[in-house]
Each structure stands twice: as structure tokens, then as C-alpha cells.
Amino acid sequence: MASRRGNQTYAEAVASPAPEKPTDSDVSPAVPTDVIVKLLGFTVAMIVAPISMYFLTIDAIFNGSSTYAGITAAVTANVILGVYIFVAWQEDKGDRAAEQKEKEKKGQ
């Protein structure tokens, strides 16, 4: 059998006004705008750069060898991925340093 909370009946609970929502809610975005811009920039680079490298190198450098041009495109994609990881790591490192300074400031 279900237990009731409080002394109100169902009809009384429905008839009573809804509780007010807190006014101090945080409406800021979950992810900062600069992070989204970086992600979109690297996404475009991951699409455009390898394809461009493939078509630029297939005839100009490798004389029609699609194998070497494909390898060049794969290396380009991996370089962009590595740069993205490095940028994200540096950003996280800066955020951790800022948090540490705030903790030290509050501790004094």
C-alpha cells in the first residue's frame, strides 16, 4: 500500500498552488563559447585539410600515386588531431591553475 506524505489528500494537493521556483537559477551555457568555436574550427580543419592535401599532392608531388597521397592525407588528419589535443590540454592546464589560485585566495 502506498504511504502518504503529509496530511493532504490528493484533491487538496491538486487544488493548492504550485511551489515557486527559485529565482537564483544559473542560465549560463554549459560549455563556454570559445570552446565551441575551437571545436568547430578543428572540425572544419579535419574535413578540409586532409581532402585538400590529397588532391594537392596526388598530381603535383606524387605523380598520380594515390597511395602516397592517401598517406599524406592521413598524416595531415593525425597532425590536426594532435594539435587539437595539445590545445585542449593547454586550456585545461590553465583552468586548473586558475582554480588553484582561487582556492589559495579563499584559504587566506
From TrEMBL:
GO terms for cellular component: endoplasmic reticulum membrane; endoplasmic reticulum-Golgi intermediate compartment membrane; ER to Golgi transport vesicle membrane. Residues 1-10 have a biased composition (Polar residues). Required for the assembly of the V0 complex of the vacuolar ATPase (V-ATPase) in the endoplasmic reticulum. Belongs to the VMA21 family. Residues 1-28 are annotated as: Disordered. HAMAP family: VMA21. It is a multi-pass membrane protein. GO terms for biological process: vacuolar proton-transporting V-type ATPase complex assembly. The keyword Transmembrane applies. The lineage of its organism: Eukaryota, Fungi, Dikarya, Ascomycota, Pezizomycotina. Keywords: Cytoplasmic vesicle, Endoplasmic reticulum, Membrane, Transmembrane, Transmembrane helix. The chain crosses the membrane at residues 35-56, 68-89. This is Uncharacterized protein. It is found in: Endoplasmic reticulum membrane; Endoplasmic reticulum-Golgi intermediate compartment membrane; Cytoplasmic vesicle, COPII-coated vesicle membrane. InterPro entries: Vma21.
